[in-house]
């Protein structure tokens, strides 16, 4: 068992600057959420794995200069991931052909063979619409629906107040609905 | 019943989805006190709920990356420790040599000053005479 299993986040961060095992524990605590964030931003497993690996190697590079000031460590990791994803999108758009392997969608509903294909298509359209949203709106939806975080926690991660997260959520759903309606999906 | 502002209604709807599931949340969708506009947003929220589910990276990837990171952190730790040691060794002559030289020079200087400025002892004066 890791020595740092029960360590507080600030203790872990300080130790991770010099102790590889502490860094390994930090990774263990955050890898799933960072992977999820990247996965929903890039839509395929290979690139999600590559970018998640780069995120943590960059974190290792920079952890010496990281100062814990109360904001969650994951906010820092999300920022690194966000920048890497933004670069990835820039490179993809330069390459013109975007090899998007569709997400393997897992519905929370019991599958009905009759409309499974239609449902899958709707979900893919929805995810395309999510990816057309501004970065902060995509991040909000990932934190809310994938990470299932409460508004207050999302606010801490995104550097906003809880009430501004509520309004951003409202505006996000409005633009998502309009986009879907334009495409005759919702 | 006074309708809730859309922001509040949407958040309540999400809370209901998260805590009670889709069946309970459906009751909110059919509540006539909500405007058509708000109800259309409930549908989008439900679609998001059904679609944006957590995914897990493969265990092979997770463990491989962790091993790679820990090995890299260890390599850096060793390099840092060696670097400090080498720096310590490398820096030794750079300050020891000048200090030693200055120290020696000043000792020689003091002796020479003493040797040539002191007045001769009475026996030496007698011998000179």
Q: How does this model look, in words?
A:
- The complex is a heterodimer of chains A (about 190) and B (about 130).
- With about 190 residues, chain A is an all-alpha fold.
- Helices cover about 70% and strands about 0% of the residues of chain A.
- Chain A has 8 helices and no strands.
- The radius of gyration of chain A is 18 Å and the shape is globular.
- The mean pLDDT of chain A is about 90.
- Chain B is built from 5 helices and no strands.
- Chain B is rod-shaped, with a radius of gyration of 43 Å.
- In chain B, about 15% of the residues are buried.
- The mean pLDDT of chain B is about 85.
- At the A-B interface, α2, α3, α5, α6 and α8 of A face α1, α3 and α4 of B.
Give the topology, please.
The complex is a heterodimer of chains A (186) and B (129).
Chain A: H1 9-16, H2 20-42, H3 45-62, H4 73-95, H5 116-131, H6 135-146, H7 151-158, H8 162-182
Helix pairs in contact in A: 1-2, 2-3, 2-4, 2-6, 3-4, 7-8
Chain B: H1 6-20, H2 22-29, H3 36-51, H4 59-117, H5 122-128
Keywords:
heterodimer, A: 186 residues, mainly alpha, 0% strand, B: 129 residues
């Amino acid at each position: 068992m890791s020595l740092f299993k029960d360590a507080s986040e600030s203790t872990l961060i300080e130790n991770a600057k010099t102790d590889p095992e502490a860094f390994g524990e930090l990774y263990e605590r955050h890898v799933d959420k960072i992977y999820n964030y990247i996965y929903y931003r890039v839509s395929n497993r290979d690139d999600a794995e590559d970018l998640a690996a780069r995120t943590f190697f960059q974190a290792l590079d920079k952890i010496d200069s990281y100062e814990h000031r109360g904001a969650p460590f994951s906010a820092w990791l999300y920022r690194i991931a966000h920048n890497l994803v933004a670069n990835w999108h820039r490179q993809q758009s330069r390459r013109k052909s975007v090899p998007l392997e569709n997400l393997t969608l897992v519905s929370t509903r019991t599958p009905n063979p009759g409309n499974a294909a239609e449902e899958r298509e709707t979900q893919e359209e929805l995810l395309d619409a999510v990816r057309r949203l501004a970065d902060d709106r995509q991040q909000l939806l990932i934190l809310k629906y994938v990470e299932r975080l409460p508004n207050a926690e999302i606010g801490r991660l995104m550097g906003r107040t809880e009430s501004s997260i509520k309004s951003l959520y409202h505006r996000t759903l409005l633009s998502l609905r309009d986009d879907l309606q334009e495409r005759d999906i919702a | 019943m006074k309708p809730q502002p859309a922001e509040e209604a949407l958040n309540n709807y999400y809370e209901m989805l998260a805590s009670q599931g889709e069946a309970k949340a459906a009751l909110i969708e059919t509540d006539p006190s909500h405007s058509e506009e708000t109800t259309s947003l409930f549908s989008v929220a439900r679609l998001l709920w059904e679609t944006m589910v957590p995914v897990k990276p493969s265990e092979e990837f997770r463990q491989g990356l962790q091993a790679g990171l820990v090995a890299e952190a260890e390599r850096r730790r060793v390099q840092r420790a060696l670097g400090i040691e080498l720096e310590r060794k490398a820096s030794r002559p750079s300050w020891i040599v000048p200090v030693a030289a200055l120290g020696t020079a000043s000792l020689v200087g003091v002796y020479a000053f003493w040797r040539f400025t002191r007045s001769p002892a009475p026996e030496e004066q007698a011998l000179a005479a």
